Amino acid sequence: MIKVLFICHGNICRSPMAEFVMKHITRKAHLEDKIYISSAATSTEELGNDIHYGTRQQLKQMSIPFEKRAARQVTRADYREYDYLIAMDENNLRNLKRIIGADSEGKVYKLLDFTSRKGRNIADPWYTGDFDQTYSDVAEGCAGLLEHLKSENLLS
């Protein structure tokens, strides 16, 4: 089983959005038994909090199922546990590397690295208020990630 951990600053907006979008598209592709998906924060600011209301609203609007959850912080052990640690932006990458240390196994990416917009950041809707744009970027990144996993024959 491939294990994917989506990471953002607080684990209430972008990373849980990516978690539930990815779970949704893997179910639709009948691959939910081949990919384990979760999310975490680089900060401690929102620990224990549920998904931001803007993210919940966006997921409902797109008919993507989600469940109540509690924000958690990424740990050094997550690096050993997960195959892919996927950050939403450059700040998340920098903070993630402070927590996990060096990416000696090449497991760390930004979500848009799996698209034609490699290297680009996904804006934080906590600050922009634009959950539509964040959703569009997250959906594109998750679709690209799923195609990457398929093309690498990691789901057989």
Give a written overview of the molecule:
This protein has 156 residues and is an alpha/beta fold. It contains six helices and four strands. Helix 4 links the parallel strand 3 and strand 4. Helix 1 crosses helix 6. The radius of gyration is 14 Å and the shape is globular.
Descriptive keywords:
156 residues; alpha/beta; Rossmann fold; 6 helices; 13% strand
Strand content: 5-15%
Radius of gyration: 14 Å
Query: Helix count, per DSSP?
Result: 6
Distance between the termini: 9 Å
Strand-helix topology:
Elements: E1 2-8, H1 14-28, E2 35-41, H2 53-61, H3 76-81, E3 84-87, H4 90-100, E4 108-110, H5 125-128, H6 131-151
Parallel strand pairs: 1-2, 1-3, 3-4
Helix pairs in contact: 1-6
Write a compact overview of the structure shown.
42% of the residues lie in helices and 13% in strands. It is of the alpha/beta class. It has a single domain (2-151), classed as 3-Layer(aba) Sandwich (Rossmann fold), CATH 3.40.50.2300.
